[in-house]
Write a structure and sequence with these properties.
The complex is a heterodimer of chains A (about 110) and B (about 110). By secondary structure, chain A is mostly beta strands. Chain A has strands at about 5, 10-15, 20-25, 30-35, 45-50, 55, 65-70, 75-80, 90-95, 100, 105-110. In chain B, strands 2, 4, 5, 9, 10 and 11 form a six-stranded mixed beta sheet that branches. Chains A and B meet through strand 4, strand 5, strand 9 and strand 10 of A and strand 5 and strand 10 of B.
C-alpha cells in the first residue's frame, strides 16, 4: 500500500519568509509525528498528533513553528519568518500502534 | 548525558562477517525499543522492534537487557546492501509517543 508522502521534497527559501510543509500519512494511521534532522545531528521530535489534536508539542523549537492536522489525515507544519538554523530535513511519520513509518522528508534550505 | 548513546563507527567489515552494534539508554521508564536503518539522504526505515525476550528476523537478531538499559543488534553473514547507518530508538510508552533516536552507527560492508 501507499506509504507516508511529503511535499515538497525540497524547498529553498529566503530568510524571513514563511514556509508550509505537508504530510500525508498512511491511510488508517491515527497518530502522526513530525521530526527534523539537521546536518550531522540525530533526529529530534517536534510534535505529535493523535487524530486532530496535538497532545505533545514539546519539541517545537520556538513560537515560529506551528502545525495542524485536519480530518485525522493530512498535516501541515508551518515555519514563520524562517532563519538559517531552520535548515534541515523535516520528516513526518505515522503509526497505528507502536511502530512508526517515515515519509521521504522535506529538505528545507534557508538562504 | 545523551538519552540514547551509540558508537558512531564506522564499522568496516568484509562481506559475510558477523557484526554487532550496542546501544544504551538513560531513561529506565522507556517501554518500546526499535532498530531503524537509514541510507544516505533517505528516511529512516524500521528494521525491527526489540522485545524483552529477544527476537530474530532472518540474519538480524535484536536483544534487550532492561536491567542494564542496553540494546543490541547482531547482523550475520553481512551483505554489501547492509551498508547503512543503524539507529537505536526508544520511546517511553508503547504506542502514541515520541521516539528518541541515537545518532546512529555507520556500517560499511566491503568486498
Amino acid at each position: 500500500g501507499a506509504g507516508v508522502s511529503q511535499s515538497p521534497s525540497n524547498k529553498v527559501t529566503e530568510k524571513g519568509k514563511d514556509v508550509e510543509l505537508r504530510c500525508d500519512p498512511i491511510s488508517g494511521h491515527t497518530a502522526l509525528y513530525w521530526y527534523r534532522q539537521s546536518l550531522g545531528q540525530g533526529l529530534e521530535f517536534l510534535i505529535y498528533f493523535q487524530g486532530n489534536s496535538a497532545p505533545d508539542k514539546s519539541g517545537l523549537p520556538s513560537d515560529r513553528f506551528s502545525a495542524e492536522r485536519t480530518g485525522g489525515s493530512v498535516s501541515t507544519l508551518t515555519i514563520q519568518r524562517t532563519q538559517q538554523e531552520d535548515s534541515a530535513v523535516y520528516l513526518c511519520a505515522s503509526s497505528r500502534l507502536d511502530e512508526q513509518y517515515f515519509g521521504p522528508g522535506t529538505r528545507l534550505t534557508v538562504t | 548525558r545523551k538519552e540514547v548513546e551509540q558508537d558512531p563507527g564506522p564499522f568496516n567489515v568484509p562481506e559475510g562477517a558477523t557484526v554487532a552494534f550496542n546501544c544504551t539508554y538513560s531513561n529506565s521508564a522507556s517501554q518500546s525499543f526499535f532498530w531503524y536503518r537509514q541510507d544516505c539522504r533517505k528516511e529512516p526505515k524500521l528494521l525491527m522492534s526489540v522485545y524483552s525476550s529477544g527476537n530474530e528476523d532472518g540474519r538480524f537478531t535484536a536483544q534487550l537487557n532492561r536491567a542494564s538499559q542496553y540494546i543490541s543488534l547482531l547482523i550475520r553473514d553481512s551483505k554489501l546492501s547492509d551498508s547503512a547507518t543503524y539507529l537505536c530508538v526508544v520511546s517511553l510508552t508503547g504506542g502514541g509517543n515520541k521516539l528518541t533516536f541515537g545518532t546512529g552507527t555507520q556500517l560499511k560492508v566491503e568486498l
